[in-house]
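Deliverable D2.4 — example input (structure tokens):
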């Protein structure tokens, strides 16, 4: 991923002074975010990232900002990097519907790895607040909770059939027949993807798209509940896109990534249109990893053919999109050693020389906000591409440079960035996550 010279752009005293002049201190008070609220202005789509999937400060700041956007600016939805069916149980809870009486119970459908992303104290507190807030406003002004990811292939098929069973048994039977195409592959979608890519079985592409189109055509029908029909349609959209995704992951990284992020952006747009159908244009908050929400065109990933949600929403909506990135220098995070293993408390290594995170550490402020339109003298130096760190649900310190860094132009990637120099781990609800704590290996930065 480039030479050491590329990895270590010059850091001058003038650049550090410029960043200090532009940086707005963050101390944990809600008023710290006043300048960010001002910069967001009338944007309809506010994208809130995270540099890891397991950091308390990122969730806390996003929750504080989300509460203010809902309560003060009338935002109608929180859309997260999670699957549509699991999120709908939370949506029912925050609207005062469903059977759940506690936020912890409402988060119970998040059972797929990594559960700690959504089953944590930070989310529990936010959805509890959303329910209380919604109880004080008319139903049409209540804020919902939605997922935009596409991993719930089988759950979404079941949801489509279950809804059709209540409104049109003949249509439900057609859906069962179409979705039975997946039966030979069992419950694991990757088996389907591998078998069809290797030519060992025919794909289900024709069947899933036929089902999605049939559900779309139901919009012109009579008295069906518009929300329930929309939820079923979104599940059918997810099935169609997930079918393509699980085939694409065996064709190459970029094909699968691009299908997934296009699905997430399309879900945001479909939801925005649905929530706007009988009132003013709805405004939405979107939570996902920095790698999904920072404009891919400003990164090494974009150079290599990847697009993402941030890029697509900027292309589609321009200035109506405002995206915020989050960074940290070091601290403790919830992350697994390998996919589908328990999330542990892991100490992350100090950020590498030549990275934005190391540069921000050298600024000498514990936490601060940078608005890219207000960089002043720091603009030139910050626009020079540097390394940026991304930790997902798996943290691999022994291959830190190659597993977790890429080059980016941060001011072109985000409209604002919140930096926390040392961060803490999320607080999982489940006892099988958050155990132990590991120090960074003493062979940093190479882990050899």
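Example output (designed residues):
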């Amino acid at each position: 991923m480039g030479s050491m010279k590329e990895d270590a752009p010059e850091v001058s005293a003038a650049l550090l002074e410029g960043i200090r002049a532009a940086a707005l201190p963050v101390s944990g008070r809600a008023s710290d975010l006043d300048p960010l609220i001002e910069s967001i202005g009338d944007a309809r789509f506010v994208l809130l990232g995270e540099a890891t999937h397991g950091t308390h400060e990122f969730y806390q700041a996003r929750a504080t900002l989300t509460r203010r956007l809902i309560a003060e600016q009338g935002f109608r939805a929180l859309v997260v990097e999670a699957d549509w069916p699991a999120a709908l149980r939370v949506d029912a809870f925050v609207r005062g519907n469903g059977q759940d009486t506690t936020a912890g119970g409402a988060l119970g459908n998040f059972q797929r790895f990594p559960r700690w992303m959504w089953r944590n104290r930070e989310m529990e507190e936010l959805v509890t607040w959303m329910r209380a807030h919604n109880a004080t406003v008319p139903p049409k002004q209540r804020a919902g909770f939605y997922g935009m990811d596409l991993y719930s292939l089988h759950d979404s098929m079941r949801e489509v059939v279950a809804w059709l069973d209540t409104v049109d048994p003949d249509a439900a039977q057609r859906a069962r027949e179409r979705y039975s195409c997946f039966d030979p592959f069992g419950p694991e979608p990757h088996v389907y993807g591998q078998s069809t890519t290797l030519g060992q079985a025919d794909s289900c592409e024709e069947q899933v798209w036929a089902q999605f189109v049939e559900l779309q055509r139901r919009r012109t029908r009579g008295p069906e509940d518009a929300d329930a029909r929309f939820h079923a349609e979104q599940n059918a959209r997810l099935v169609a896109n997930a079918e393509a995704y699980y085939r694409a992951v065996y064709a190459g990284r970029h094909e699968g990534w691009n299908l997934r992020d296009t699905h997430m952006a399309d879900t945001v747009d479909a939801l925005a249109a649905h929530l706007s159908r009988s009132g003013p244009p709805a405004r939405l908050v979107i939570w996902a990893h920095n790698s999904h929400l920072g404009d891919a065109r400003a990164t090494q990933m974009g150079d290599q053919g990847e697009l993402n949600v941030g890029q697509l929403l900027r292309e589609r909506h321009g200035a109506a999109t405002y995206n915020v990135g989050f960074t940290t220098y070091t601290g403790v995070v919830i992350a697994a050693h390998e996919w589908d293993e328990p999330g542990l408390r892991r100490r992350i290594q100090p950020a590498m020389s030549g990275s934005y995170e190391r540069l921000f550490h050298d600024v000498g402020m514990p936490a601060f906000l940078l608005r890219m339109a207000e960089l002043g003298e720091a603009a030139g130096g910050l626009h020079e591409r540097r390394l940026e760190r991304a930790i997902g649900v798996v943290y691999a310190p022994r291959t830190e440079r190659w597993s977790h860094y890429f080059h980016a132009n941060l001011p072109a990637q985000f409209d604002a960035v919140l930096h926390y120099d040392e961060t803490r781990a999320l607080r999982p609800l489940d006892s099988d996550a958050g155990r132990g704590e590991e120090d960074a290996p003493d062979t940093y930065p190479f882990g050899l």
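The radius of gyration is 22 Å.
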